[in-house]
Design goal:
Blueprint: H1 3-16, H2 26-52, H3 60-74, H4 99-102, H5 104-127, H6 130-151
Helix pairs in contact: 1-5, 2-3, 2-6, 3-5, 5-6
Organism: Marinobacter lutaoensis
Signal peptide: 1-22
GO molecular function, one term: electron transfer activity
Length: 154
C-alpha cells in the first residue's frame, strides 16, 4: 500500500472513534453524511458531463476543482457519521442497512477504497488527461457502487 493509502486507512480508523460523534445527534449524523455524499455526487456529475458524456466542454480547472471536492469528502472522516443508531432499523430518513454495523471490517475496507480512488481522481485531474480522468471516474464510481450495493436499501 502506498504511503497515502496507509495514511487514509489510519485517518479513517481514527475517525471511527472520533469524539465528535458524541457531540452529534443521530439525526445530525445522518443529515451531515447525506449532504457530504450529495456534494460528492454533484461534483462527480460535473466530471461525468465533461469527460464521460461530453455534454459540457472540457475545462481542466473545473475538473481539478471537482476532483478536489470529491477527494475532500472521501478523506474527511465520514466514518464518524455512521454512529450507533444511524441505520434504517433505528432511525428515519436513511437507507443505511443494519448489515453495515454487522460488518465493520468490510465497511471499513469499502470506505478506504473510496478514499483511495478519490485521491487518485484528484491526482489524475491535476495531470489534465481527460481520458485518464474518465477512467479514474469509473473507478471511483465502482467504489461508490460497492457500498451502495452492500449497504444501501433500494
Amino acid at each position: 500500500m502506498k504511503r497515502s493509502g496507509i495514511a487514509t486507512a489510519y485517518t479513517f480508523a481514527a475517525c471511527l472513534a472520533s469524539p465528535a460523534l458524541a457531540q452529534m445527534s443521530v439525526e445530525d449524523q445522518i443529515e451531515t453524511r447525506q449532504a457530504a455524499f450529495q456534494f460528492a455526487a454533484w461534483n462527480m456529475g460535473k466530471i461525468k458531463a465533461q469527460v464521460v458524456d461530453g455534454s459540457v466542454a472540457y475545462n481542466p480547472e473545473q475538473m481539478q476543482a471537482a476532483a478536489n471536492a470529491v477527494a475532500a469528502v472521501a478523506n474527511s472522516g465520514l466514518g464518524s457519521l455512521f454512529g450507533p443508531g444511524t441505520g434504517m432499523d433505528q432511525a428515519d430518513g436513511t437507507k443505511l442497512k443494519p448489515a453495515f454495523f454487522d460488518e465493520p471490517d468490510k465497511a471499513r475496507e469499502i470506505a478506504i477504497r473510496f478514499a483511495q480512488e478519490a485521491s487518485k481522481l484528484q491526482a489524475v485531474a491535476r495531470a489534465g488527461d481527460a481520458d485518464a480522468l474518465a477512467q479514474q471516474f469509473r473507478a471511483v464510481g465502482q467504489s461508490c457502487k460497492a457500498c451502495h450495493d452492500r449497504y444501501r436499501a433500494k
